[in-house]
């Protein structure tokens, strides 16, 4: 038996791309669509980036097989907020404007989540410190 082979007992799950990577993908796609590129050519250009290549190539194959953009992004495990928004605006027909609004909405969500985490950090630390102090007071009294 070859020792260099890794034995896997579980099948790796396709993890979604990081939120920052999803946002960068959407920014590039939106920018290229605003420059006048068709969506397939824009995705071909996005493939030049090594980190975005797997996402772009998968989206291209799904679009060529007849799927919608929201379905292709859902297949690549994009955030549900993005795919749901693109699903509901599919009938609009203006992919550029819809994509820009989706990017703005997702950016705001990321900013507010980061602010919430920073805000919630202080009360959590304060609660832990108070609990430790109460424990020591109980033990000494």
Description:
With 141 residues, the protein is mostly helical. 70% of the residues lie in helices and 0% in strands. The longest helix is centred in the last third of the chain and has 46 residues, at 95-140. It is elongated and about 75 Å long. The model has no long low-confidence stretch (mean pLDDT 85).
- The backbone outline, from C-alpha atoms, is elongated
| SSE string, helices as H and strands as E | HHHHHH
Q: Output the number of helix runs.
A: 6
Strand count, sense and closure of the main sheet?
Answer: none
> What's the β-strand tally?
0
- For the termini, the CA-CA separation is 64 Å
Quaternary structure type: single chain
Our estimate of the beta-strand percent is: under 5%
Using only C-alpha atoms, the radius of gyration works out to: 22 Å
Mean of residue pLDDT? 85
SSE layout and pairings?
Layout: H1 19-34, H2 39-46, H3 53-64, H4 69-75, H5 80-88, H6 95-140
Helix pairs in contact: 1-2, 1-6, 2-3, 3-4, 4-5, 5-6
Keywords, separated by commas or semicolons:
141 residues; mainly alpha; 6 helices; 70% helix; elongated
